[in-house]
Amino acid sequence: MSPDVEAVAGARRWLAGRARWRWWEIAFWLAAAASFVLLPSRHLILAEIAILGLFALSLDLLLGYVGIVSLGHAAFFGVGAYAAGLMAKHVGGEPLLGFAVAVFAAATVGLATSFLVLRGADLTRLMVTLGVAMLLGEAANQWSSLTGGADGLQGMTVAPLLGLFEFDLFGRTAYGYALVVLFLCFLIARRIVNSPYGLSLRAIRDNPLRAAALGIAVDRRIVGVYTLAAAMAGAAGALLAQTTAFVSLDVFDFNRSADVLLVLVIGGAGYLYGGLIGAVFFKIAADLLSAQTPQYWHFWIGLILVVLVLAGRDRLGERLSALARRARLTGGAP
58: domain range? Predict the structure, then answer.
């Protein structure tokens, strides 16, 4: 067997090993499915976590695998939300049809704006993505005859999902719908990052010039993953619009882009589960802290972020593991 054939076979085995499901991944999704049955009183916040997790997953494809930092990712979230809302109000309330239109609209906007991030460094991309979100937000504000402007898009009527499951005030259908969409999008993202295409994305993230020298079509791959990330962000926006039956201008707000970036900082970027874990932590922490200190809960979230940055996530995990081992050895004795 020639060296080239051996290298190809080795690469295939390595990719197959990476694509294999680990026990903790199966446990994670089983726990998510079990929460639908075991936590019936928390379906509303669980739906919010699933939507935020999908939004963070879309940004992780850009930040964690291509190295593109975006402060305007809410642009695609907002496009998806308004597309789904307008479909529900003017065309029909069928959720899946509105969802498909929203994903297509967000992907189209992502494709049209992806060429803006092909040039320039991180600071340029930050400003460009932020500018796109601000432009779309102002357009939605000015076009009040269609979007409702500052009053928001009202009068939406969302039909039962598949004609069977109505969206109730307890969030049961909303959480089930959001969880299924999140899982399907995760499968797509997982398949992509554990493929040769995903390896080329990592090569671009690490060194774009070297990747281009190796024959990788850098610009084409950035456009492709940017469009995919926009489509997933639009899916998250569509879920929010359909599960709440309301869309307002804050879907384009800078705070939404900043929050999802914070979620990735908390959970970690570059391994898909970071956005999901960060979304769980962020939403639960925000819910608990806002109940205790409604005016200052942002302070505590910021303090946690500072600790993560200063201590380092890896070093913090090592210290917690060392404390756990010490507690087991001493049997919990002082």
Answer: 25-276
Same domain flag for 147 and 192: yes
**Dihedral sign from CA coordinates of 19, 23, 28, 33:** positive
How many Å separate Cα 309 from the centre of its chain? 21
Count Cβ atoms within 10 A of the Cβ of residue 331 and give its class: 0-12 exposed, 13-18 middle, 19 or more buried: exposed
Does residue 217 sit in the same domain as residue 297? no
Phi-psi map region of 153: left, alpha, beta (phi>0 left; psi -120 to 50 alpha): beta
Total-model pTM = 0.86
Give CA–CA dist 185/58, Å, rounded: 9
Q: How far is it, in rounded angstroms, from Cα 231 to Cα 319?
A: 39
The three-class DSSP label of residue 144 is helix
Does the residue 286 lie in any domain?
no
- Lowest mean per-residue pLDDT among 1-5, 31-35, 274-278: 1-5
Q: pLDDT for 182-210, tens place per residue?
A: 999 999 999 998 888 888 888 888 888 88
Strand partners, 247: 153
Going by C-alpha positions, the residue among 86, 91, 59 that lies closest to residue 75 is: 59
